[in-house]
Amino acid sequence: MSGTSMMTVSPPGMSLRTLLRRSGAQAIPRFTRNLSSESSSVEKKTERAEITVPPVREVTEADVISGAPKELRYRSVRIYQPTRNTMQSGAGKSERWRIDWDTLPGAGRWENPLMGYASSADYMQGTRISFRSKEDAIHFAEKQGWDYYVQQSEPKRIPPKNYAENYVYKPHKLRIARTK
Amino acid sequence: MTTIPARLATLAQRSSSPQESRKRVVRLYREWYRSAPEICAIYALPVSPDYVRHAIRQRFEQNRHVLDQRVIDTLLLKGLQEYQETMNSWKQYDHVMGILLTDINKPQKTFLQKFYEGKDEQAVIPAATGV
């Protein structure tokens, strides 16, 4: 690929520096010499390198390849532990950690004028993701490049109950049989 | 038009070094660049090959900042798949004009435009416009 052919397709907003870097290896030293006259030889060497050495990252940046819309980067997600279902006595599914999106402030919602159905254009409003641990959820949010905040869960308190308490004498109080 | 399914098919590869992945990216770019007239001919596009090249270049420039080797490899694979699908006529006209060749740098909306729509935040760009 010749330098000129690349120049013709490049968008107009591109900087001169990137054009020079692309157009050929010879243009770069000349350019750096003009720009930084007092830089040491080591610095020149690093600037002349065509490919920068990538820093070692712990988390892969998945938002580039995930195909998710760009607008998600402006929203923050909540990482939390769901509470126990109050309609059931078991505490199932409350150990997991969840990611969900807050409702958009005052936008993306409308009401059907005829039937009054509530509609929304927020494609994330029904989405929630479950994880085994808080760390997993944080890792996922970081990987996707989402801003997140962790909502601390309330410590579970199981009130002490025993059968004998139903028959303890308490003055000036109506006796209540606690069955549960 | 019949196509051979295996035409332009490639295996997923892992680049051993940044130099190699750069070489692969440039190779993929050259393939896109050279096939611009053919894309225009296959899909009977109302745009010039130069515009196709410009749009393809935009897609490559968009991911210029990516340094992670695994991400580059994945992007390469996606680009190759896209190329195969385009050249084998596995796409419709709208896939090419509406997705592949649309301008990704949309002009920023002005304050008043956002105000009239009632959406003045970047996060609120819904897919549908409502009633």
Automatic annotation (TrEMBL), chain A:
User: Which keywords does this Swiss-Prot/TrEMBL entry list?
Assistant: Electron transport, Membrane, Mitochondrion, Mitochondrion inner membrane, Respiratory chain, Transit peptide, Transport
UniProt-listed InterPro entries: NADH_UbQ_FeS_4_mit-like, NDUFS4-like_sf
Which top-rank group of organisms is this from? Answer: Eukaryota
The region annotated as signal peptide is: none
Q: What is its main location?
A: mitochondrion
Give a GO biological-process term.
electron transport chain
Q: Where in the cell is it found?
A: Mitochondrion inner membrane
Q: Hey, which family's this protein in?
A: Belongs to the complex I NDUFS4 subunit family.
**UniProt name for this protein:** NADH dehydrogenase [ubiquinone] iron-sulfur protein 4, mitochondrial
UniProtKB/TrEMBL annotation, chain B:
- Where does it localize? Mitochondrion inner membrane
Q: Sorted alphabetically, which keywords does the UniProt record give? A: Electron transport, Membrane, Mitochondrion, Mitochondrion inner membrane, Respiratory chain, Transport
Membrane topology, as annotated, equals: Peripheral membrane protein
One Pfam family per UniProt: Complex1_LYR
Superkingdom of the organism of origin: Eukaryota
List, alphabetically, the GO terms of the cellular component aspect. mitochondrial inner membrane; respiratory chain complex I
**Transmembrane regions listed in the UniProt entry:** none
Entry similarity comment? Belongs to the complex I LYR family.
PANTHER family assigned: NADH DEHYDROGENASE [UBIQUINONE] 1 ALPHA SUBCOMPLEX SUBUNIT 6, NADH-UBIQUINONE OXIDOREDUCTASE B14 SUBUNIT
Q: What is the name attached to this protein's record?
A: NdufA6 NADH-ubiquinone oxidoreductase 14.8 kDa subunit
What species does this protein belong to?
Answer: Gymnopilus junonius
